Amino acid sequence: MNTHPYVRAYMGGIVVPTLFLLVMMTGYFVARFILKVPEPIERVIVFPMAIVPNLWGLWNMLYARLRQGRHLPIGLHGAILPLVLAPLGALVTLRFNLLAVGPAPGEVVYFQQIHLPYGLIVLLICAGVAVYYLVWKYFVNFFNEVLGIA
Predict the structure, then answer these.
(1) Which of 3, 27, 93, 148 could pair with 98 as two cysteines, CB 3.0-4.6 Å apart?
(2) Beta carbons of 133 and 79 less than 8 angstroms apart
């Protein structure tokens, strides 16, 4: 019997970001329709909803494939993912003119309103790597064990 390990790895990988995006969408609906936030924040949510769960599933499939030989621990494997997602997100926001180099040197402007210095961006990426490490080590690994691929 074929147990389809890559399909199970994909399913184990998409659980966490899908649940997180449900929480984000709830917050979006509250902000947009109840609190009447005028900003078009749906432009920020489209990229994560379309790309992130699929990339998590594919990344977990890659982890399942690499496990057959020498491999990284799952936490380190997951900590590499934001280093892939951050440039992809930057490319998408640059393409849609949501991100630009700021008027002051050493900063970027997000949505023509939010000014972020480069140092803060580096700090946010480091925090993202740490969060991804922990989420992959504890949550994705848990779902992999439940699905029998860990």
Answers:
(1) 93
(2) yes
